[in-house]
Write a structure and sequence with these properties.
Structural class: mainly beta
Number of helices: 1
Shape: globular
Number of strands: 8
Oligomer: single chain
Mean pLDDT: 85
Order of helices and strands: HEEEEEEEE
CATH superfamily: Quinohemoprotein amine dehydrogenase alpha subunit, domain 2
Radius of gyration: 17 Å
CATH topology: Lipocalin
Distance between the termini: 42 Å
Largest sheet: 8 strands, antiparallel, barrel
Low-confidence stretches: 1-19
CATH class: Mainly Beta
Strand order of the largest sheet: 1-2-3-4-5-6-7-8
């Protein structure tokens, strides 16, 4: 029975590693932010985000270093998806095994939308 349990645990770990899906883990920390609007004539942006987990909810603070704009919001993680409401933005990221978050965003009060990545520092 002990060998069966060990084998099943190893198979589960192998399945996660081979599919590239990150299991729920604490995403708390500092991230370098890079993104761009997908509308014509918009330039890329960069900055920093800090994620801090409290139970199942994340407190998120981001700064766009180019404009100086600051954003505060909340996020939740389910499996390899991390969804974030940040001011007037909704962002949905996929969490990679290496901790990088790649996502798409939409602005609540306009038709602006884009892509963004957060890389752990």
């Amino acid at each position: 029975m002990r060998f069966l349990k060990m084998g099943l645990a190893a198979l589960g770990a192998l399945t996660v590693a081979s599919t590239g899906i990150a299991a729920d883990r604490d995403l708390s920390g500092k991230y370098a932010m890079e993104g761009t609007s997908l509308r014509p004539n918009f330039r890329p942006y960069g900055g920093e985000c800090v994620l801090k987990r409290s139970a199942w909810i994340y407190q998120v603070n981001c700064v766009n270093t180019g404009s100086g704009d600051k954003y505060v919001g909340k996020g939740i993680q389910r499996g390899d998806l991390f969804s974030l409401y940040l001011g007037e933005y909704l962002v949905v990221y996929r969490v990679a095994v290496n901790g990088k978050l790649d996502g798409d965003w939409a602005h609540a009060r306009s038709d602006d939308y884009g892509r963004e990545s957060l890389m752990p520092k």
